[in-house]
Design brief:
With about 375 residues, this protein is an alpha/beta fold. Among the domains are: about 5-40 and about 210-250 and about 320-370, NAD(P)-binding Rossmann-like Domain (Rossmann fold, 3-Layer(aba) Sandwich), CATH 3.40.50.720; about 85-180, no CATH class. About 35% of the residues lie in helices and about 20% in strands. It contains 13 helices and 19 strands. The strands form 5 sheets. A 7-stranded mixed sheet has the order 8-7-15-16-17-14-18. α1 runs parallel beside α13, α3 (about 100-105) runs antiparallel to α4 (about 110-125) and α5 runs antiparallel to α6. The radius of gyration is 22 Å and the shape is globular. About 35% of the residues are buried. Bound molecules: flavin-adenine dinucleotide and uridine-5'-diphosphate (UDP). Its EC number is 5.4.99.9. InterPro entries: UDP-GALP_mutase (IPR004379), UDP-GalPyranose_mutase_C (IPR015899). Keywords: FAD, Flavoprotein, Isomerase. One of its GO terms (molecular function) is UDP-galactopyranose mutase activity.
Length: about 375
């Protein structure tokens, strides 16, 4: 087979690049995907009970990048959705990111008044402060509060999720869920938030629906690369695998998802409940809250973090840590040597903890470079 571009991976990164190249440059693209479906980790499907579920864990789209939102809006309508998360702390379900409502849910009103006034005085209102930042220089009551939140919300959850303590990871990891000095219970504050009205897989079907795009599923690119004539490749899988781990394996974190079904209309009051201190799983997510689907019964998942073992499970999370970044840089240098023939992009190829909007933005900006 003869094509202009060979793209490895049909997730957001690979699919957006395929669409841009096919529609804007009129060039022929072959996407090779090792799974039996498109959409990468955003893949969704209807389960046996007819509930729309996300196979690889809950995916909520949120972005402050209007061009990313507008780009995807060509291929989907959006269901407006604001994600809400409660964490079980001291036997109570309180909002996360931890905010002033969480404070009042956990402490007697007069003490909560005092703590919230001190927080506002020190940092201001409607301000987000990472837990590691608050802990750096807190004194008195604020020190008590910072330690309380650290111990009850972050420490054990992070150990479960990463097998590392919060301070052993890049500070950006726990800063994703900062202390929010506000009464806003939403998990994200981005201007654009929602889910594709007909689901992610339907969105991807439309992205890939172009006569210049061909798709080969159930195929690892190594199996076919010799037989395909292409001018350039874009690789969106793990960069260390591409280079046959010549500098050693990049570490990833994996997950096991346990799907459960109930005859109840709803199992929990919000999309996700976090369990920092109980159970082996980190969180449960009930899909009907996300999708707004009206159907009898409900499906939810428990997420069990796992060590990643090559060939046994899926590398879901690059691990943001300085020493692993240094290892990644060695692979980046290898990539630089062959950039005339192969380009690398995506959560696994860039070894970056991208959200979906960042993966799309990365693909769009790489396309700009290709096209200039
Ligand atoms: P992927 O989606 O991983 O796609 C890469 C594709 O390449 C895969 O389909 C893989 O099978 C294929 N591939 C790899 N190697 C080969 C090979 N050798 N041959 C052929 N094919 C290959 N983001 C959000 O914005 N909001 C969320 O709520 C959210 N929740 C998440 C929850 C979980 C549990 C996880 C793991 C991620 C979540 N994300 C979320 C992040 C989101 O999944 C990623 O940003 C996005 O999927 C990245 O897209 P990608 O195309 O770079 O990678
Ligand atoms: N986190 C935590 N407790 C929580 C929520 C998050 O300790 O209740 C930390 C944990 O280290 C987690 C990180 O913040 O991995 C980022 O959380 P996020 O919900 O963004 O993770 P993701 O959805 O990407 O798995």
């Amino acid at each position: 087979m003869k094509v202009d571009w060979l793209i490895v991976g049909a997730g957001f990164t690979g699919s957006v690049l395929a669409e841009r190249i096919a529609s804007q440059r009129g060039e022929k693209v072959l996407i090779v995907e090792q799974r039996d479906h498109i959409a990468g980790n955003a893949y969704d499907y209807y389960d046996e009970q007819g509930v729309l579920v996300h196979q690889y864990g809950p995916h909520i789209f949120h972005t402050s990048m209007k061009p990313v939102w507008d780009y995807l809006a060509q291929f989907t309508e959006w269901r407006s959705y604001y994600h809400r998360v409660l964490a079980v702390v001291d036997g109570k379900q309180v909002p996360v990111p931890f905010n002033l409502n969480s404070l009042y849910a956990l402490f007697p009103p007069r003490y909560a008044d005092k703590l919230s006034l001190q927080l506002i005085e020190k940092y201001g209102f409607n301000v987000k402060v990472p837990i590691l930042k608050i802990r750096e220089n807190a004194l008195g009551d604020l020190k008590f509060l910072a330690d309380y939140i650290y111990e009850n919300v972050f420490h054990n959850y992070t150990l479960k999720q990463w097998h590392l303590k919060p301070e052993e990871l890049a500070p950006s990891v726990t800063a994703r869920v900062p202390i929010y000095i506000s009464r806003d219970d939403r998990y994200f504050q981005d201007a654009y938030q929602g889910l594709p009205q007909q689901g992610y897989t339907a969105l991807f079907r439309r992205i890939l629906n172009h006569p210049n795009i061909k798709l080969l599923l159930n195929t690892a690119y190594q199996e076919v690369v010799e037989e395909i004539q292409y001018k350039k490749m874009i690789f969106t899988g793990p960069i260390d695998a591409f280079f046959e781990h010549q500098h050693g394996e990049l570490p990833y974190r994996s997950l096991h998802f346990k799907f459960l079904h109930t005859e109840q209309e709803y199992k929990q009051s919000v999309g996700t409940v976090n369990y920092p201190n109980e159970y082996d799983y980190t969180r449960t997510t009930e899909y009907k809250h996300l999708t707004g689907q009206r159907v009898y019964g409900s499906t939810y998942i428990e997420e069990y973090p796992q060590p990643y073992k090559r060939g046994e499970n899926i590398p879901y999370y690059p691990i943001p840590k300085e020493e692993y970044r240094a290892l990644y840089k060695k692979y980046e240098a290898e990539a630089e040597k062959i950039k005339g023939r192969v380009l690398f992009a995506g959560r696994l190829a860039d070894y970056q903890y991208y959200n979906m909007d960042q993966a799309v933005a990365r693909a769009l900006s790489l396309f700009e470079k290709i096209n200039c």
